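Justification of resources, computational component.

The compute hours requested in this renewal are based largely on the per-chain cost of generating structure records like the one below. Each record pairs the submitted sequence with a full structure-token output. That output is archived, and it is also reused by downstream analysis tasks.
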Amino acid sequence: MIRDNKLEQENRITKWIYHTIPFAVLFLLWEVLARVIHQPYILPPFSAVAASALSLSLADDLAITFGFSLLGLLITLLAGLPLGLVIQRSNKAKWALEPFFWFLLFAIGIGTTRLTPILILMFGLTQLTTLIQSIIVPILVVAIISGYGSMHFAIRLGFLACLSFWFMGEMIFRTAILGMGYQFSMSYDLHNVEMMYAIILLMGFTGLFIDRVLLKYVGNLIKKKGSDCLGKSDF
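The structure output for this chain reads:
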């Protein structure tokens, strides 16, 4: 038992090292390249960007963006997973709904920019508008992917889609003075390239953390539930 725990700990350390190497190489090359070209308005040094990212000045914006993204994911799963289950269990539903969902994806467009004027007319420039435009495409994506039995992958991709669309909504609608998308847009207007890279860095690592911790835990629950169902069916 002790030996197994030791081996498991060593495997975790090895995995952590292998996960760290690509990031270390990327950030080292980033720092060297930035120092060589010496164009801070194009590529500021990684050390300066990391300092801006760790300054806690974006803490509230980060919490708001990811909080609303997780809310969007919850709504997406409540709507998309049942549709995916219907598609998975019924060939007739699959034949009827899958082409329709793909039609909506192509008609709406990945950026949902075609719906933006309609949503603004209906709901105005509010956070509700941002939320609605951030869940339309993710619901369709989750329904299609989970319909093929890949529920955990559907949840992970749904979170990525909700986060991306909410971020874009904050940039486009500017419905509040907080949020990573709003701050990114303001940094662009002010030509604050260092802050733009800092926002990208924070979004990447926070999203990775949620995917690896929270959504991985959800995936383990799904696998456990599936195993329990299989175990009960054996009796």
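The radius of gyration is 21 Å. The chain has a mean pLDDT of 84.
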